[in-house]
C-alpha cells in the first residue's frame, strides 16, 4: 500500500519533505569484530548508517550492531572518534562515530541476536529492536567482519554459519518479511556464505567482497591512515566497503545507479579480490536508492559533515590482507611510539607483535598437522559449493574446543575444516586430529592470539 511519509534529515538545518512510496526501507548493519586493530569494521558500519539516515531511512528502521570499542580504545589517538577515510588535502576529517546510533553493542553483538533480528524475534534478540518489515518493504543488510569458508565471525560467541544465515533468509522469504532484499557482505571467503546456497528466485540480491577462496582487504593503511594531521595507526576501512560507500556518497551516482551498476563499479575498483554476485538477477535494475535510502527522498548532497562535490575525494592506495591487519597495526603503533620518543610504548607494541608472530607460526603448524600431508594439494584447490554444512558446524565447534577460539589470523585455517568435511571425513575424525595437533603445537597461551595491547 502506498504511504504518504514525512521524512526529515539534518545537516546544519532541519529539512523535511512529504513524498509517496510503496513500502518502507529497513536495514540491518553489523560489524562483527572487536579491538582497535579492527577499527575499520566499526568505522565502515557507522559510515553505512549515515548513508542510510542521510537518504531518508528512519532511525527506528536502521538496526546497527557494533561492539563499539575502537573509538574508546587506549590506542585511538583521537578518543571517541572513528574515521573511515583520510583527509590528506587539509579538509576536516569526517568523524563517522558522531551521531552513529548503535542498538546492540559489547557482548550483545552475537550470532544469536543477529539471526533473531533478521527473523523479527525480539525475545531471542534480548528485547532489542528487530525487523518488523512486511511483504511491501525493502530490506538492506550490510555485514563487515572476518570470515572463512561457511562462516562469518562475531565478536562474542559462535560465528554466523552459512546454513543458519541462509535458513534465516528462507524464513524471512516464507514469512513475507520483504518484497526485495539486498545484502552486502565484507569478509574473507564471503562468497562461500551464498554459493550454491542462496536461491536465484527469492527476490534476494547479494554481493560479497571476495569469492569463496580468498581474503578481503583492509585499506587506507600506513601513510593513508592520516586524518586531520594525525596518524590513526591502523587501516581506516575495507576495500570493498570503501568502494561501495564512496560510490553511494556521490549524489549523481546515488540517484541514478541501479544495484547492478553499483556492483559493476565496485567489482572494477576492488582489484585485490573478486567481488561476487549471488541470488536473484531480476533485481539488477532496481535503484540503489530503494535499499540504501527512501525512493524520491531529496537526500542531502554528499557525506554528512564533509564535502558535497561530484567527485570522489580519495582513492584507496595502500591495502593489507585482512588476515594481516593485526600484525600490521602492532608494527604501525610501534613505529608511532618510536617517533614520539615513547620507549616503553614501543617496547610493548614490539612484544605484542612478537607474540602475534608466535601465535601465527603455532597456528600454521597445528592446522598443517590437522590436515595432514595427503590433503595439501586438496587444501590449495578451489572449494566446491559447501554441502556438508552439519559436518562443518560440528567440526568447527570441536576444533575451537581443542585449539581455542579462532583469531583473525587463524581463521584462514578454517578452510582445512571445510576441505576435510567436503572430502568425506567425519566431524569426529577432524576433532580427534585437532585434539592431538593443538595439544602438541598450540599451548593454551597461544590459543586465540589476543593480547592486552591493541
UniProtKB/TrEMBL annotation:
Catalytic activity: Hydrolysis of proteins and small molecule substrates at -Asn-|-Xaa- bonds
GO BP annotation list: proteolysis involved in protein catabolic process; vacuolar protein processing
Family per similarity comment: Belongs to the peptidase C13 family.
Annotated keywords: Hydrolase, Protease, Signal, Thiol protease
Enzyme's top EC category: hydrolase
The organism's place on the tree of life at top rank: Eukaryota
Residues in Legumain prodomain domain copies: 375-438
Signal peptide bounds: 1-22
PANTHER family named in the record: HEMOGLOBINASE FAMILY MEMBER, LEGUMAIN
Protein name: legumain
EC number: 3.4.22.34
Xref: Pfam families: Legum_prodom, Peptidase_C13
Active site residues of this protein: 146, 188
GO molecular function, one term: cysteine-type endopeptidase activity
Gene Ontology CC terms: vacuole
Amino acid at each position: 500500500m502506498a504511504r504518504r511519509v514525512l521524512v526529515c534529515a539534518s545537516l546544519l538545518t532541519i529539512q523535511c519533505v512529504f513524498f509517496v512510496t510503496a513500502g518502507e526501507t529497513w536495514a540491518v548493519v553489523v560489524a562483527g569484530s572487536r579491538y582497535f586493530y579492527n577499527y575499520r569494521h566499526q568505522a565502515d558500519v557507522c559510515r553505512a548508517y549515515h548513508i542510510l539516515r542521510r537518504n531518508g531511512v528512519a532511525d527506528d528502521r536502521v538496526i546497527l550492531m557494533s561492539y563499539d570499542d575502537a573509538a574508546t580504545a587506549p590506542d585511538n589517538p583521537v578518543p571517541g572518534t572513528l574515521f573511515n577515510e583520510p583527509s590528506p588535502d587539509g579538509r576536516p576529517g569526517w568523524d563517522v562515530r558522531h551521531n552513529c546510533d548503535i542498538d546492540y553493542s559489547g557482548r550483545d553483538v552475537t550470532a544469536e541476536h543477529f539471526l533473531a533480528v533478521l527473523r523479527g524475534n525480539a525475545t531471542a534478540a534480548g528485547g532489542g529492536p528487530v525487523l518488523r518489515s512486511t511483504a511491501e518493504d525493502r530490506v538492506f543488510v550490510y555485514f563487515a567482519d572476518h570470515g572463512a569458508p561457511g562462516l562469518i565471525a562475531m565478536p562474542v560467541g559462535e560465528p554466523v554459519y552459512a546454513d543458519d544465515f541462509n535458513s534465516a533468509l528462507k524464513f524471512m522469504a516464507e514469512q513475507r518479511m520483504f518484497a526485495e532484499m539486498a545484502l552486502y557482505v565484507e569478509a574473507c571467503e564471503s562468497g562461500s556464505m551464498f554459493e550454491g546456497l542462496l536461491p536465484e528466485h527469492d527476490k534476494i540480491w547479494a554481493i560479497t567482497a571476495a569469492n569463496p577462496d580468498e581474503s578481503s582487504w583492509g585499506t587506507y593503511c600506513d601513510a593513508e591512515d592520516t586524518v586531520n594531521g594525525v596518524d590513526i595507526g591502523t587501516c581506516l576501512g575495507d576495500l570493498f566497503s570503501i568502494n561501495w560507500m564512496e560510490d553511494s556518497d556521490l549524489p549523481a551516482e546515488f540517484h541514478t545507479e541501479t544495484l547492478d551498476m553499483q556492483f559493476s563499479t565496485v567489482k572494477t575498483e576492488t582489484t585485490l579480490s573478486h567481488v561476487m554476485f549471488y541470488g536473484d538477477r531480476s533485481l539488477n535494475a532496481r535503484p540503489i536508492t530503494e535499499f540504501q535510502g527512501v525512493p524520491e527522498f531529496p537526500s542531502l548532497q554528499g557525506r554528512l559533515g564533509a564535502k558535497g562535490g561530484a567527485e570522489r575525494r580519495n582513492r584507496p592506495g595502500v591495502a593489507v590482507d585482512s588476515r594481516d591487519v593485526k600484525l600490521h597495526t602492532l608494527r604501525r603503533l610501534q613505529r608511532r611510539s618510536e617517533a614520539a620518543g615513547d620507549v616503553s610504548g614501543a617496547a610493548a607494541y614490539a612484544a605484542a607483535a612478537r607474540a602475534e608472530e608466535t601465535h601465527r607460526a603455532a597456528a600454521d603448524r597445528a592446522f598443517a598437522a590437522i590436515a595432514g600431508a595427503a590433503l595439501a594439494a586438496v587444501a590449495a584447490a578451489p572449494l566446491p559449493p559447501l554441502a556438508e554444512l552439519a559436518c562443518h558446524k560440528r567440526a568447527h565447534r570441536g576444533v575451537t574446543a581443542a585449539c581455542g577460539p579462532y583469531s583473525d589470523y587463524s581463521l584462514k585455517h578454517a578452510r582445512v575444516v571445510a576441505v576435510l568435511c567436503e572430502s568425506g571425513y567425519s566431524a569426529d575424525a577432524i576433532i580427534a586430529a585437532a585434539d592431538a595437533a593443538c595439544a602438541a603445537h598450540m599451548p593454551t597461551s597461544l590459543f586465540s592470539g589476543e593480547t592486552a595491547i591493541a
